[in-house]
Structures
1.
Amino acid sequence: MNCDLESLIYILEDSVKFSVIDSTLTYGNKNHHLSYTETRILELLIKNSGSVVSKIQLIEYSWTGRVVAETSLAKSISNIRKVFRECEFHDDNVIQTIPRLGYRLNLRSNVYEEKMDETSNLIFLEETKAISDSMAPRAMIKYADSYLGINFKKIISYLVCFILLSASVTFLYETIHSSHSNFIDPDYEKISINIENKEYIVIKNKNSNIPSRITNLISLAPSGTLVFYKMKSNVISLSYRIDNHAISFTFHADGLDKAKCVIKGAIEKEKHVCVL
């Protein structure tokens, strides 16, 4: 009995092969590898070829629930365009930026199901046009179970981060935003600190100090901001109260450079929840 593994294959403009399960674009004899998120972005654009796909849709589909800045999406789009140029698609409007709306793929594609057995057959599924005649969404085709299994550990990791983040947000609202009480957990204290001539109120564990690397992150917020800081098992939680808005972040201690960039952008754009 043969065991067949089916995967989706897209042929773009009859010249470039895109394999979803392998995350590769093949032109001639050369393979170009994409990241997981780049693969998801390109797949969604192909499924909606000729139609505008919003930035929110692309982020939710490609980062599977994580909250990321639009700059991350723009960088991934730039990387995909670079690969397309290496495949002789030199016009960046192959992936067209639609201001304030999103992106549109302007390529014709054929969709196949590839059976990886001794015959390695390609089964034709459908053809998509470069400019769609209909705005109706195409049916989403399920990945092979083996492809989903690869990302199981990532899903667990994200789930743990969201649990920690939820605990941080809950604590912040219970201790800071209550209009009926100024209660602070006995293990925590509220202190005032001055950073670069800006005043901050910080709620932290009584037994912990605030290292300089954290004060650098606190100073990204405007003067007068109320900040909650907690570090446990090398995971840092930072929550800011800015103009009656709570913005919360959870990240590993070894990711401070990335955290600084994301926190700065999120505060400027009022993104309320981020997991790094």
2.
Amino acid sequence: MFLATVVVFVVALSFGFLILMNKVEGERDERQTQVVDRAYKYAFVTIMFLNTVVYFWEKVGNIQLLSSEDLAALSIWLGTLVFAPYTIWQHAYFPVKVKKSSSMGWLFAGLGLLELLPVTWDYFESSKVDQQDIYLVFLGILLLITGSTILLRNYLDRKEDEGR
């Protein structure tokens, strides 16, 4: 299991490096900047809402739901999960002059599935999931949703362009 995680991590790093090296710099227009600012606010409010709910649930219910590490990881994950799909859907995730490509969406969706498959396989084999595997589930869901949003947005944009 450890070797598979290391291999997936190395593959993800190499794809990330390739994407970074081939990245075309672009500028955001004023509308995109406003959408990104709004997305940051939504992500912040979501994180604060999550932390408030967990805090009051622990104080009132007198139970500890999450460790501090899990709460930090869940907060970052949830904030990113709010930010990325919102900005993608509003056409503000990528700069203006960058060519729209589905390769990033396929990469994210594929990596998301690769992160989810080992955890799902372990769960069905032993009906138990290790604590560290929960972080792989978080990452897999985030990548799968982000990749699917990119693919869906590009598909709808192509359909709209064909209709003109």
3.
Amino acid sequence: MAMASSRIPHQLQGPSAVTGTDSTPLRQHVGQSRLLRLLQEWARVEAESSRLDVAERLSGWLGAMDTVTLDGALQSIEAYPAQTRKAGEPLDAGALSQRLHRVTLEMSAGLTPAVPASSPLPPRGARAAEPPAPAPDEVKVTYAPYYQRYLDLQKRMDQQVAALRAELRQALTRGSPGLRQLVALDSVMEQMLGPRAQKLLASVPVFLERRFAYWRQAQERAPQPPERWHQPGGWIHAFEHDMKEMLLAELHLRLRPLQGLVEAAQNEQQKRT
């Protein structure tokens, strides 16, 4: 049975931005995350309940990320000392946006599901003149190298996103009182939701293993020679495409708070003009 959208609470959609001004309350805009859309799409394709259990568990964790109220964070912000109310300096929101865009492109380009050199898979673009590839039953392809690759890329994403988030926060602290409040809120929210987010993201490679099994079973139903596996229509090619999509979806999810900070700076700049 497919994962119907009506079964997914609005909390699962994930925050796209958090903005705030001096005269308006801090607000959280909600929109469906790319990661969730990908999980829903795969759930509809794979359909079997044995594969849906992981997707449903992931969705539950996504929803739990939004169950924590903002009361404590807002009370903390309201208790800020009076000196934080002083006017700030104008910010170059365009430069912040360009910085975020540039880092996003660099990170996206680095999210490649490369097969380790020790893998027994035939090399991409192998020519017919080369020695024939081993028979399918001699080629042992496991998920383990991909799992380790995903973990390595997650660690890299975590470090790069954290560094850029700190950079954007530092820039916004030089802005208006509303932006400084937003920085405080973002910091508190990260502390509140960080452990839950890490638990969710740590489970993504586990779910991706089900996708690996899905494509391997497709290969078993309609066998192709190993030299075709990396070509369009081959099962490894299809899986690596899915892995790339999952990596990009996770990056998109990780960058949402940063996008909110940049959008807030842009809104503040528009108010000044």
4.
Amino acid sequence: MKIYKSTDKIVLQGKAWQVLYLLKAYRKQYKRVRDWAQDK
């Protein structure tokens, strides 16, 4: 049970990191699109 809990924590951390990475990429893309729209 202890092993399962520790691996569960690792999986959760991995998912959180993935979400953060996606958010960062999305924000970068959003900024680029917004700047492009302002130039038009």
